Structures are given as structure tokens and as C-alpha cells.
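#lab-general

N.A. 3:47 PM
ok so I finally got the sequence cleaned up, no stray characters, all 194 residues accounted for. can someone with queue access submit it? mine expired

B.Y. 3:52 PM
send it over

N.A. 3:53 PM
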Amino acid sequence: MSSQSSAKFILASSSPRRKELLESINASFEIIPADVEEDNEGHDDPEAMVRFNAALKAGWVADRHPDRFVIGSDTTVHLDGRVLNKPRDMEEARSMLRRLSERTHVVYTGVSLQNKAANLDETFGIRSEVTFNRLDDATIDRYFEIVNPLDKAGAYGIQEGTDIIIRSYSGSRSNIMGLPIDETKAMLERLNLI
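B.Y. 4:20 PM
back already:
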């Protein structure tokens, strides 16, 4: 992450995973987390929900920095017509992993790039599918020893303890982490932001 003087854009998120993914493509950015109330209800259209939240976050920061490019992003897990966002506590995290056990679910991420002065507002959504191993209580305990589930949609992350919980996935791995980096990179390159 760079200082504002050399940063090409702002990331409207304090997510360490999104920061790490953007750093992996040598992006020059600064972090200003958006202070917004996300729409996290059990949504009929989870992709629309994450696109809305991504645009909400980017818009909040862009309103305060109208001459800057701002990226907002939002990720959710969807299973059986319900969204699984960040768990409130360890009990809910454990309940989420029990529900995901031996099932295939969908991970949706929305990405929004805004610049008020340039009248730019681009938002897109990406989906990936993840199939879990069978998770008994002992396996969940072992997973929680190495991963903090409370800051992750669906109470898990694909980048740590993967073999413990994940049988397979299809689509973008970085999308499952919280930012589809190939699509984001293409958007940033098109606007000469990297």
C-alpha cells in the first residue's frame, strides 16, 4: 500500500485479504474503509446484494474524495436460498460450517469502481462454487484453531486450512477470498490505474 501522493486509487475496505490480493498485482493504493450499513438480509438475489453493497462502499468513500478512483467490494456465501455473511459469534460460525458440511455453495463477490469527478461508476459481480468435506465437531475445532471465522463470510476462508474443509471449488479462487483479482486487474488496466 502506498501513500496518497503516489496511490492510484482508494480501497474502501479494511479487509486484509483484499489488500493482499491488490498488492499481488503491484497496485498502488491507499485504504479508507467505508462507514456504511450494508444490506445483508436473506436476499433473493445474492449477486445483486453484493453489487449493491460494493457500490455503497465505493460511493461512500468517493463522495468524500470526488477526484479519486475508489474500489468497493462485498462477498457473501449462498446456500439453500440464504446468505451466510460474517458470523456474529463462534456459535454461529460453528452452525454455518455444519450447514456447509458435504454441500456445494456459491460465493458471490461484487466489485465497484467509482470516480465522481470523472462520472465513472462500474460495478460487476462474480460467482464461484465451493464443495465442503464432511465436517464433524472435531474437524471444526481443528479448523478454528488456525482460522478466525468471525471476519469471513460463511465463517471460512479458502487461503488457510483449505484441506481441512474444502473438497473442491470451481471458478475464481480469489473471488472466494473476497476480490476476483483477474477481473479487477483487467478493469484497473483499462483505466491505466495499474
